[in-house]
Each structure stands twice: as structure tokens, then as C-alpha cells.
Amino acid sequence: MQSLIFDAPEVRRVVEHSIASDAQQSRTVRDKRSGELVKEAVGAPSVLLARDHGVYLMSNGLPRDIVSEPRSFAAYAWGCDPFRDPDWRNKARLLAGDDDFSIALPWAHDLKALIDAGARTVVLNLKDGGVEIAEG
User: Fold this and answer.
1) Per-residue pLDDT tens for 66-110?
2) How far apart are CA 108 and CA 98, in angstroms?
3) Are 51 and 101 spatial neighbours (Cβ–Cβ below 8 Å)?
4) Which fold has domain 2-133?
């Protein structure tokens, strides 16, 4: 089991954006027949856990939380921030593997409650191909 650790203030921004989003929550998936990227509705305010240029959480609410075009705000896992961590590639590979992915987690309200209760970090465990919020 690998644990991803995030700073709570950064995760707060992600979840509050998701919860406050006026537009329908969505996620991008690859159509199995055509191979094209398509948007799918997600039934609850969600965060995206992604591994590509780092490992991070970001809101999937619309309009996006842009920090500088075309980048959306992202809460990076400890050691996996390409803007701060010189060895982010190796750390990301160690924690989340070699393949890029994006998983919509309908946990915005749960993560906000955790942070509101005083959590200073948010820990997500990657286990057996799934993701779970670690008990604090």
C-alpha cells in the first residue's frame, strides 16, 4: 500500500471549488470503442486524483479553477510537485506507478469535513488498484 500525503489548506481549495461549482461536475474518460476523450457526468462534487506531470488532486468543477492559463489549481502530493520537488518523477513513480491516470473521487464533502475537523494533512492510500481515505 502506498500513501499520498497532501497539505490540507491546498486540498480545501480543491474541495471548496468543487462544491461551489455552478456547472455540472464532469470527468474526462476515453471511449472504449472510438478511443476519443469524452466528458461524463459525475453525480456528486468530486476531486480528481491524477498522475501525469506529478501526482495531484484538483477540482473537476466547472468553470475550472485557473491559476495561469491553461493550468488549473492542483494540490500536489508530498514530493510529487514538479514546480517544487527536484526528484518528483521518481517519487511519483514510486507512489503511483508509471502510467498516467485520472480518477474522479466523489469525496469533496468528506474531505471538507475531515479538514473542517482539524486535519492538517489529507492521506489517500492506493491499495489493490483502489483509493481510500486513510483513517486519521
Assistant:
1) 999 889 999 999 999 999 999 999 999 999 988 888 888 999 999
2) 26
3) yes
4) DNA Polymerase III; Chain A, domain 2 (3.10.150)
Nearest to 61 by CA among 91, 26, 96, 94: 26
Phi-psi region of 45 (alpha: psi -120 to 50; beta: other; left: phi over 0): beta
For 13-36, how does the pLDDT look when each residue is reduced to its tens digit (9 = 90+)? Answer: 999 999 998 775 666 666 678 877
Q: What's the predicted TM-score (pTM) here?
A: 0.86
Coil/strand/helix, residue 3:
strand
Phi-psi region of 129 (alpha: psi -120 to 50; beta: other; left: phi over 0): left
DSSP-based helix, strand, coil % in the chain, nearest 5: 25, 40, 40
Contacts of 96 (CB under 8 A, 6+ apart): 2, 4, 51, 55, 77, 80, 126
Angle at which helices 8-20 and 108-116 cross, to 10°: 130
Q: Where are the domains of the chain?
A: 2-133
Contact yes or no for 47/17 (Cβ under 8 A): no
